[in-house]
Amino acid sequence: MRTGLRDLARRLRKLRTRLRNRIALRLGIATVAVASAFAPVPAAAQADDAVYFFRAAQVNDAGRIKPLLARGLDPNVREPERGETGMIVALRHDAMDVFALLLAQPKIDLEAQAGNGNTALMMAAFKNNMAAVKALLAKGAQVNRPGWTALHYAAAAGALDIMRLLLDQHAYIDAESPTKVTPLMLAAREGQEEAVKLLLREGADASLRDAGFHIDAAEFAERAEKPWIAKAIRQHVAEQVMSR
C-alpha cells in the first residue's frame, strides 16, 4: 500500500514539473512576441517604408500609407530630392485623400519646410487648392512668415479667391522674399493681371524695389514682356498721386 502511494506521489511531482515547464515555455514565447511587436523598426525597413510612402502619396493611395504610419513612420518624413514632406508632395500631386490622412496625424508639422522653404500652405496656394488652404488654416497654419509666403504663391498662380482669403486672414500684402520680391512683383512678372489689380486695390505698394535687380513691379512686368501690366500699374500709381 505504501509503495503504491509513493509511486503515485512521484507521478504527481513529475506531472507538476511538466506543467510548469510547459507554462514557462508558453510565457517565454509570448514575451518574445510582445517584445518583437514593440521593437524599433530597423533603419533599412524605415528607408523602404519611406520609399513606399512617397510613391503612395503621389498616386493618392492613402490605404498604403495607413499601415506605414501605424508602424511608426514619421508623418513629416522628407523625400531626398526636394526635401519635401509627404503633405507637400500630396498637395503637389492633388492627392487629397493622402493630404487628409496626414493632416489628421497628431504629430504632423504644418510648418515643415522643403529645401526651398516651401510649406504645405504655400503649395496649396500655388495649386489653387482652396479646400486644402481652408483645412490648413483651420488647423493653425501660419499665414505670415519670414521670406516667401502663401500670398506670394497665390499671386503667382493668379488664385484670386485664395488671395482674398489670405488677405482676410491678415496676410501682409507687401511681404518680402529673401530678395525683397513682393507678391505684386511676382504677379506682375507672371502676367497675372487680375491678381495685380486685386493687390493694387487692396493697397499694395507699387513703389517698392527688390534687392536683386533694384526694380519695381512695373519694371518686373516689362522685363517679363508684359507691357500691358506695367501700364496698368503705372496708371494706378498716377491716379493715386492725383487723388492726394
What does this structure look like?
InterPro entries: Ankyrin_rpt, Ankyrin_rpt-contain_sf. It is a single chain. Helices cover 62% and strands 0% of the residues. It is mainly α and 244 residues long. The chain folds into three domains: 1-39; 41-117, Alpha Horseshoe (Serine Threonine Protein Phosphatase 5, Tetratricopeptide repeat), CATH 1.25.40; 143-244, Ankyrin repeat-containing domain (Serine Threonine Protein Phosphatase 5, Tetratricopeptide repeat, Alpha Horseshoe). Helix 6 runs parallel beside helix 8 (150-157), helix 10 runs parallel beside helix 12 (217-223) and helix 12 runs antiparallel to helix 13 (227-243). The longest helix is centred in the N-terminal third of the chain and has 37 residues, at 2-38. Residues 27-41 have low confidence and may be disordered.
